[in-house]
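Slide 14.
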Amino acid sequence: MVRRKLIVLVLIINVLVFTRAYGQDISFGAEATKPETESNFFKISEIKRGNFGPGQYSTEGFVVRVYTCPDCPAGAVCKPCMKDNIVISENNQELKDYSGLTNSELIIFTNHVTEFEIGSSYKFLINITNNKSTLENINDIELVSFSEIVDRKVGHKDTRTQSHKNAILNTHYAIRNTFSEQ
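Slide 15: predicted structure.
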């Protein structure tokens, strides 16, 4: 009896951890908010074409490039490189470099490039800064927060969502069976 209750407790904790890990936005910084703010949501092409001043805006797109500045070996003289960034696009077409950027792509600077998967779709809360370090017609953009849109991956089955459903279902059955046998 105690063993069965312990199993149920472990299952419940697993579901809670899983839900927390995959059902919540990932934010950076104290001022970060959820990206789903409707009043300041713009398509990537609208942000690129518009005359947006510094501030926070929401958008969404596919990650089509992830760039990390290569490490410079100790004692070597290395040329400066661009800050770590991702390129997001309205189209899910991977980019090998920055030469083909169009009005459908944005460079977003972030120290968290390892959190992104090329080809995955995300909602973003971005901050347009007063700085300009690229050849783009818009000031530098920094990431504030993001959340993955799991149902828009092309050619990718959303196994996490199904696993999440299975975990909840298994927990439900375990709880029901534990209490129905008492």
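Speaker note: The longest helix spans residues 159-180.
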